[in-house]
């Protein structure tokens, strides 16, 4: 939970926790243990590097809401706007321009509050 809080921030984690129900508690537990307790807590990559990889994957898969959340989380991970842009350039080449185009719009809105 400490890693999840350090990346996403207390406000986000508190909101997610407050909105849990009996239905999604097992899912939230799995995410906390698997994503945050294992993947994000490993020593092989920095939080900045994990952030860049996560942004690229979410963009390539078209997961806009999660992408926006992780773009905002770069304030906590050390990934820069330039890092995000470069990750999305890779998405354009390896996952397609339409995916990257959408991701650029999402990132601009998340970073700058710009509606495109």
Automatic annotation (TrEMBL):
Organism: Roseibium polysiphoniae
GO MF term set: 4-carboxymuconolactone decarboxylase activity
Keyword Lyase set for record: yes
Keyword Ubl conjugation: no
Record keywords: Lyase
Superkingdom, taxonomy of origin: Bacteria
PANTHER family in the cross-refs: 4-CARBOXYMUCONOLACTONE DECARBOXYLASE FAMILY PROTEIN, CARBOXYMUCONOLACTONE DECARBOXYLASE-LIKE DOMAIN-CONTAINING PROTEIN
EC number assigned by the record: 4.1.1.44
InterPro entries referenced in this protein's UniProt entry, alphabetically: 4CMD/NDH-1_regulator, AhpD-like, CMD-like, Decarb_PcaC
Every Carboxymuconolactone decarboxylase-like domain range: 27-109
Pfam families: CMD
Name the UniProt record assigns to this protein: 4-carboxymuconolactone decarboxylase
């Amino acid at each position: 939970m400490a890693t999840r809080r350090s990346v996403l921030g207390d406000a986000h984690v508190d909101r997610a926790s407050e909105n849990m129900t009996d239905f999604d508690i097992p899912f939230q537990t799995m995410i906390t243990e698997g994503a945050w307790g294992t993947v994000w807590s490993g020593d092989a990559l920095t939080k900045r590097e994990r952030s860049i990889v996560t942004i690229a994957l979410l963009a390539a898969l078209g997961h806009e809401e999660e992408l926006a959340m992780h773009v905002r989380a770069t304030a906590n991970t050390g990934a820069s706007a330039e890092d995000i842009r470069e990750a999305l350039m890779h998405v354009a080449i390896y996952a397609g321009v339409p995916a990257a185009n959408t991701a650029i719009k999402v990132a601009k809105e998340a970073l700058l509050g710009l509606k495109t």
